[in-house]
Design brief:
With about 80 residues, this protein is mainly alpha-helical. The chain contains 3 helices and no strands.
Length: about 80
């Protein structure tokens, strides 16, 4: 999902810039900025979607909750 967002925005930008006639240097600078900022800004969305898919296919068990509680208890003591 993140790959599609990143490459989709870069490819869209390059197509629009070629049609409009933007010079190469600004085209590459903005494409580079898109390559850095789109994944950074899209990470929370993609993480949430993939986590929801993981929870759907692999439902948590009582053992998972016990491990989480033990981790929280150990963290509270530290």
């Amino acid at each position: 999902m993140g790959v599609f967002m990143t490459f989709g925005s870069i490819i869209s930008w390059m197509i629009i810039s070629v049609v409009v006639g933007i010079a190469l240097v600004p085209l590459l600078l903005i494409a580079g900025a898109l390559a850095v900022f789109v994944p950074t800004l899209g990470y929370p969305l993609t993480y949430t979607v993939w986590f929801a898919i993981d929870i759907t296919f692999r439902s948590p068990t009582a053992e998972d909750f016990a491990q989480a509680q033990a981790w929280l208890d150990n963290r509270a003591l530290a």
